[in-house]
Amino acid sequence: MRLTKAMKHGRFPAFTKRPGFIMALAAAVAVGACEQKHFQPPNRAAQVAEAQMLYSQKLFDSVTWASDSVRSFQGNEVYAEKCRRCHGTVGEAGTQYAKDRGLKVPSLVRPDWKYESLDSLRKMVFTGHSGGMPIYGVAGISPREIDAVAYYVLYTLRPDVLGAAGEPGKAK
Asked: Are 26 and 86 in a shared domain?
């Protein structure tokens, strides 16, 4: 319907003021709203695969820090905001939050934990995994924050890794 000058000024044709018209309009809206919609959540494995294709170590080439303590401090802030709920205050896992959601969250401080390098941990934080870890690199946190939290986990929560990965000041 073309808007007339009268309609633009709030004067609508008489038929729009009739109860029958209003009821018919309401019924049409209700029927449209009640149609069954089929929501398909995105395939988690496909999302992780896409994040893995987007990941590159070069994302971290321009990340620099004034000092290792600044890097670790920033990592602690990111960890507290994004990771602690599932992984626990000191990385031990087994939080009530994770249990309530049926998540199998690994301890970050277990001796046999497989992420021993900064690069491997950055990649895991960036890409997440199909078991439920968020895909932070795609829609979550910046490469700088990923670098900081990975550094914090390896060199503050897991000081035993220092022997395998080198000194913190030499970490890339």
From this structure: no
